[in-house]
Amino acid sequence: MRHALKLAKHAESLGEIPVGAVIVDENNRIIGEGFNQSIINHNPTAHAEIMAIEQAGQFIQNYRLVNTTLYVTLEPCIMCAGAIIHSRIQRVVYGARDYKTGAAGSYIDILTRPGINHYAQITSAVLADECSLMLSTFFQKRRQQKKQKKQTILKTIKDPFNI
């Protein structure tokens, strides 16, 4: 999870939502890693988990990632949960819960839903405080930036020649 946090910090340095993901095999060897790239790639599917799954599949030359563990700093969303199921990841370990879109039990539970053809073991709240703080700080800064931008625009509208 510490490595996933480093990747999340890298994402934040690029202006992305700070989420990082790492996939390890049964020997605890990193076979895939990723961080959010939706903004810089103009791609809504470029979540950290998806990037890590793609890299792991290329690394082992298989679309099935059996006997692997995914570590991710934020609870996977529904899209990522679907990719986890399809890739047959054995275990998911996540940090911060996502009560708005989390699909591993916080909002909805896709990964252990009865009737699905693959179930992942879930371990939640690993380094949760650190993961949550990184996300909440990021969104706090982003809200402040938007507020300042709005104030600048309003000031310009009121007095366009005195900036």
Keywords, please?
16% strand, five-stranded mixed β-sheet, 5 strands, alpha/beta, 43% helix, 5 helices, 163 residues, single chain
Number of strands: 5
> How many helices does DSSP assign?
5
- Main sheet strand line-up: 2-1-3-4-5
The helix/strand class is alpha/beta
- In whole angstroms, the N-to-C terminal distance is 46 Å
Uncertain spans: none
**β content, as a range?**
15-25%
Rg over C-alpha atoms, rounded to the nearest angstrom: 18 Å
Q: Which descriptor suits the 3D outline?
A: elongated
Helical content stands at 40-55%
N-to-C series of helices and strands? HEEHHEHEEH
Main beta-sheet annotation: 5 strands, mixed
The overall pLDDT, averaged over residues, is: 94
Q: What can you tell me about this protein's structure?
A:
By secondary structure, this protein is an alpha/beta fold. The chain is built from five helices and five strands; from the N terminus they run H-E-E-H-H-E-H-E-E-H. The chain has helices spanning 2-13, 38-41, 48-60, 78-87, 128-158; strands at 20-24, 30-35, 69-74, 91-96, 121-123. Strands 2-1-3-4-5 form a five-stranded mixed beta sheet. Strand 3, helix 4 and strand 4 form a beta-alpha-beta unit. The longest helix is centred in the C-terminal third of the chain and has 31 residues, at 128-158. The radius of gyration is 18 Å and the shape is elongated. The termini are far apart.
Provide a concise account of the structure shown.
The protein is of the alpha/beta class and 163 residues long. It contains five helices and five strands, in the order αββααβαββα.
